[in-house]
Amino acid sequence: MAEEIIKILRRKHSFLSAMIEGVEYAMKELEEESKPEKIYSTLTVFLGEFPTKKLIQDLADENGIEVRVRTKEDALTVLRSLREI
């Protein structure tokens, strides 16, 4: 069902098509990557720096990782910790 909706949106709305392709590409990149630096880079390219830090902060909070994500290095620390869980 979701695939059919995506196909229709792509045909009718070229802007949405580009956005959907970008999200699919980012998801593929993240699934194949294990290096925290590359994951952070991919997220910032597709989401921007602030939303990426917010997302990583939420992940840290959900997993009990007591790090405040204010810098890139803080974000990488959380990503490394998540990899160990």
How is this structure best described in words?
The protein has 85 residues and is mainly alpha-helical. The chain is 81% helix and 0% strand. The protein contains five helices and no strands. The chain has helices spanning 2-12, 14-32, 36-47, 49-62, 72-84.
Give me the secondary-structure category: mainly alpha
Q: What would the average pLDDT be, to the nearest integer?
A: 84
Portion in helices: over 70%
- Residue runs with pLDDT of under 50 for 5 or more positions: none
Strand content: under 5%
How would a textbook summarize the main sheet? Answer: none
Gyration radius from CA atoms, angstroms: 15 Å
Shape field: elongated
Topology:
Layout: H1 2-12, H2 14-32, H3 36-47, H4 49-62, H5 72-84
